[in-house]
Amino acid sequence: MMGAIIRMNASDDTGTPAQAPARARILDAAEVVFARHGYDAATTRRIAETAEVPVGLVNYHFGSKLGLYRAIFELRAPTVMDQRAAGLAMARSEPDPDRRIELVIKALILPMFGLRASPSGLRFGQIMSRELSDPSSDERGIFAEFFDPVARMMIGAIGECYPDWSVAEVHWAYQAMLGAMMIVMTDAGRIARLSGGVVAPEDHEIAARHIVAILAAGLRHRDRSLTKDTPAMGGKPNETGDI
Amino acid sequence: MMGAIIRMNASDDTGTPAQAPARARILDAAEVVFARHGYDAATTRRIAETAEVPVGLVNYHFGSKLGLYRAIFELRAPTVMDQRAAGLAMARSEPDPDRRIELVIKALILPMFGLRASPSGLRFGQIMSRELSDPSSDERGIFAEFFDPVARMMIGAIGECYPDWSVAEVHWAYQAMLGAMMIVMTDAGRIARLSGGVVAPEDHEIAARHIVAILAAGLRHRDRSLTKDTPAMGGKPNETGDI
DNA sequence: AAAAATCTTGAACGATTGTTCAACTGGAAT
DNA sequence: ATTCCAGTTGAACAATCGTTCAAGATTTTT
C-alpha cells in the first residue's frame, strides 16, 4: 500500500513554500516527523513521504538518520545560542543583582519562546524538549555539543548575580529555569485541556511573562536557610576543574 | 486484536525480586526498557529478554505492548496520587497562604522525588517524564486518565491559596512547578556533567529542598503587575465548565 | 485417576525498519 | 559531441518489529 509518490513538476507550485530543493524539503519534513515521534520512532520513510521525495534521497543527502537529525540542530541551534549570548551580554551591564537575574532569565527563555512564533521553530522546540528527556540522547551527544557551552554561560551568569550562592544552589536554580521553560516547549494541549481552553500555550508572549515573573521571584527570594551549607561558588563558573 | 485475558490467580504472593513469577518479571523488565527507550522505541523482544522469558509470554499476560505499558501506570500511579492527595489534605489545614503554598508544592513534588529512592521508582519517574513530553501520548490517553484528576486538585489548591489570582496565573504557576519537578525526574547525568560532579541529582532530599525553596519563593513573591489582567479564579477549580 | 484450565515455549507471520545500489536524469565542463 | 558528475529514482537487502499460534508443560478441579 502507498507505494507511489506523486511528483511535483515545475507546473505545480501551490502548497509548499515555493518549489524548494529536495535537501531543504527533507530537512523541513524531518523536523515535522522528529517533533511528532521522537528520534527512534521517526522513520526515514515517513520523512521521505512528507517531503515527497524517494526514500533513497534522504540517505544520499544526509548519510544516515542520525546525520539528518544532527543537521536539524546544526541549522537551528546557532540562532538560539547567539540570541542567548547577546542577552547575557546585555544582562552583564545591569549592576543590580535582583534586576540582572531577571535579564539572565529572559536571556534563557525569550529566544526559545520566540521560536514558537513560527511553526518550524515550534517543532524545533519540541525536538529539543524530547531530546532532553531521552536517556539515549547521550549516545547522540547532541546536547553536550550544541547546548552545554551556553548552559555553562547561563550558570556562570547566575553565579555572578549571587556570588555567595553555593555551587548546588546555582545549578539547581538553572535546572528550575530549564524545567519551567521546557514544559512550555513540550506542552501541546494539556494546559488548554486542564484550564478548559482558557489558557492558551500558543501565546508565547503571555507565557513568557508568567514564567519569567515566577522564576525571577523564585531566585530573588528563595529561602536559603536549608540549602546554603555547600561551599560558595564565588562568581566563577566551573571552578571545579572540569571543562 | 487483544484476545488474551489477564488472569489473577489465588497464588497472589508478596513481591519478590529474585525468582519472581513471570508476570511480575515482565512488568519489572518493561519498566527498565520503557524508561530507557520510550514507548515506541522499546521492543517487546528486548523486554522479554530482560525478563528472561520467551516473547510470547508478554502478549499472553498483557495482551499487547500498550496493555503492558498501561499496566505499569496502573501499578505505580495510585501510590503517587494517594500521597499527593494526602499532602493536599494536610496543606488545607494551614491557614496562612504563604505557608500553605509551600505545603502544596511539597504535596506535588515530594511523592515524586521520594520515588527516586528505589530503582524502580526512578524508572517510573523517567517513564512519566517521557510520556509528558511525547506528543503521541494523547493517543494513549494515559495522562488524561491517571494524572489529570490530581492535576486539577493541585490547580484548585493553588487557586485557594491566592483567590485573587487569574486562571492563567494559577495554571502557569502549576506548569512552572511541574516543569521544575519533571526536569529533575528526567535529568540522568547532565547536571552532574555541568557541575563537574559536584551536584548529584540522585540525592532527592537535597534536590527537593532546592526546588521547593525556589518554587515557594516564586509563587509567593511573583510580580503580578504584568499578568493579573485576566479574570480572577476565585478559589474554585474548573469554574470554566469543563470536566 | 481423569479432565480441564492455565501457563509456557519457540517457531512463524506479514509488515516495516535503515540502508544500499545499479540504473537513470539533466546540465555544465571538456 | 563527448565526458562527467551531482542529483534522482525505485527496487532490493538483511534485520527487526508486534503479534499469533499450535503444541507441550504444569497446575487445579473434578
Structure description:
The structure is a homodimer of 243-residue chains. With 243 residues, chain A is mainly α. Chain A folds into 2 domains: 22-62, Orthogonal Bundle (Arc Repressor Mutant, subunit A), CATH 1.10.10; 76-221, Tetracycline Repressor, domain 2, CATH 1.10.357. Helix content of chain A is 67%, strand content 0%. The first copy, chain A, has 12 helices and no strands. Chain A has helices at residues 22-41, 44-51, 55-62, 65-92, 97-115, 119-132, 137-140, 142-146, 148-161, 167-186, 190-194, 204-221. In chain A, helix 5 packs antiparallel against helix 12 and helix 9 (148-161) crosses helix 10 (167-186). The relative contact order of chain A is 0.10. At the A-B interface, helix 1, helix 6, helix 9, helix 10 and helix 11 of A face helix 1, helix 6, helix 9, helix 10 and helix 11 of B. The structure holds a DNA duplex (30 and 30 nucleotides).
